[in-house]
Amino acid sequence: MEDIEDLLAGGVGGATPGFRLPLNSVGVNPKRNTSKRSLPKQKDEVADSNRDSLAPPSMKIPGTQTIYIKTFGCSHNQSDSEYMAGQLTAFGYGLTEVPEDADLWLINTCTVKSPSQSAMSTLITRGRSGKKPLVIAGCVPQGSRDLKELEGVSVVGVQQIDRVVEIVEETLKGHEVRLLNRKTLPALDLPKVRRNNFIEILPINVGCLGACTYCKTKHARGHLGSYTVESLVERVRTVISEGVKEIWLSSEDTGAYGRDIGVNLPILLNAIVKELPSDQSTMLRIGMTNPPFILEHLKEIAAVLRHPCVYTFLHVPVQSGSDAVLTAMNREYTSGEFRTVVDTLTELVPGMQIATDIICGFPGETDEDFSQTVGLIKDYKFAQVHISQFYPRPGTPAAKMKKVQSKIVKQRSRELTCVFEAFAPYTGMEGKEERIWITEIATDGVHLVGHTKGYIQVLVSGPESMLGTSAIARITSVGRWSVFGEVIETLTSTNIKTQIREETKPPCTSDVSTCETCNCSAESCGEGKSGEACNVSGDITRQDEKTQGKSKTKEEEKQGVVSHWGFVDKALVCGVFISSLTILVLMISIASKVLLRHQ
């Protein structure tokens, strides 16, 4: 069946995003029920009060059914699912996390790797066995619309998520619907149900400018399409007002943002950070970016990463440490350029954390190529490395290349994993105090998850009421993947403002007379400590006000009092002074006249 188009009268326009089209405006492929009708049940088998609940989904009132949504893949896919959930709930549909309780399954798919697509196929088979109406969304149907698994089910493309209500309604009636044609970008202000109320996943663009030989996502998401700076800034304002505490910028390649509309990533980032609360209650996380498009903006991006409301974390996939393999992948950069990105950001951004990706066993990868990759990972000892084996994706150039033997691919993956897992990236953090932003419950169901400014995961104990707050945590122990801490202070708006004032003080010197305006006490300066004793890196410093008070001399206190005099106070003092001077002159004049008379 061909993609359905709007059939509105006059042939112009369409439905407002997220709103139902009239039933006669949606082209569908009605399914005929060829199965034998079941015998009618005895009247006493089903009570009248239960007839509606036991009726087939197609016989229920539209908008009263329950939907199960399963999402595979990246944060962009997660955001799409949240938008679809928002539109469905806005029209009365219920959501459930129990597949068996649902009247329809909505499966949002990922085409990056074979395992995720295999999981999708398994879930589709399971749904068919359970006679569940199915709607398949995401990159798989968009990039592989003729896939056998998609026969007989409804599909919705990545740029048609604003019509999910129509598709669900028609599918529940037993119709097969296909919406895959690309159009304008879905609106950012559609109804949305966040999986985590405190985290907004904000897509800044779709598609990319690359042409990697192994990537299937380009087939699905297409060429670069960026949202305007104004629309993204407006969305940021909205989600902050809704209580969001973390904003994740999501994209297939964040670094390429805006090149299709005449702007760039630094312009967007600077516009967004202006909207973030000064008390650092809402943090920004910049999404994955490939090296080519940030090389020319490294200093500007580093400046944004140093901003108090931006996590000093960036995901920069390298995929291989071998230039020969990178060329075969058509990645458009060298390992040396990747090193430049890492070195520059590490130098310019205190506490910078970088995550990267590696593909083991790409076609043509030799032992020497692999050793160069291992050397790169050893040189930087990244805290996060996502290691995957090469999976040929149908329709990509790499699928036609001569493959490395499977056993060699697995061996290299195991070897690199062992190298990576031997690192201890968080050694030395124990005993330190860090500000963390708490937004999630850990998978163990016991701890809360907070992140430092470097986006290091800190597990702490505390009530769920702490979600969405910021706190000072003392690190008690470190693990391979995260650290554990104890909350020693929950930050409120009052003490956050105090923290910010302290952080904005200039570095101190060994001159005791200047210590009242810096981050060190006079005693510290008196001991000859230099500016390195100050907190100039942006970490939170709490000081004893009484100690600072004792360090001030009487003269300094007098100067402090004078500095607070207003205009009226100064005018009164001047008046008193002039009056006294006038009286003195008059007295001298009178005294002079008396003396002259006696002479």
TrEMBL record:
Residues 41-51 have a biased composition (Basic and acidic residues). InterPro entries: Elp3/MiaA/NifB-like_rSAM (IPR006638), Methylthiotransferase (IPR005839), Methylthiotransferase_CS (IPR020612), Methylthiotransferase_N (IPR013848), Methylthiotransferase_N_sf (IPR038135), MiaB-like_arc_euk (IPR006466), rSAM (IPR007197), rSAM_horseshoe (IPR023404). It is an enzyme of class 2 (transferase). Residues 427-489 form the TRAM domain. Residues 23-60 are annotated as: Disordered. Coiled coil: none annotated. Keywords: 4Fe-4S, Iron, Iron-sulfur, Membrane, Metal-binding, S-adenosyl-L-methionine, Transferase, Transmembrane, Transmembrane helix, tRNA processing. Its EC number is 2.8.4.5. Residues 194-426 form the Radical SAM core domain. GO terms for molecular function: 4 iron, 4 sulfur cluster binding; metal ion binding; tRNA (N(6)-L-threonylcarbamoyladenosine(37)-C(2))-methylthiotransferase activity. PANTHER family: RADICAL SAM PROTEINS (PTHR11918), THREONYLCARBAMOYLADENOSINE TRNA METHYLTHIOTRANSFERASE (PTHR11918:SF45). Catalyzes the methylthiolation of N6-threonylcarbamoyladenosine (t(6)A), leading to the formation of 2-methylthio-N6-threonylcarbamoyladenosine (ms(2)t(6)A) at position 37 in tRNAs that read codons beginning with adenine. Belongs to the methylthiotransferase family. CDKAL1 subfamily. This is Threonylcarbamoyladenosine tRNA methylthiotransferase. It comes from Eruca vesicaria subsp. sativa (Garden rocket).
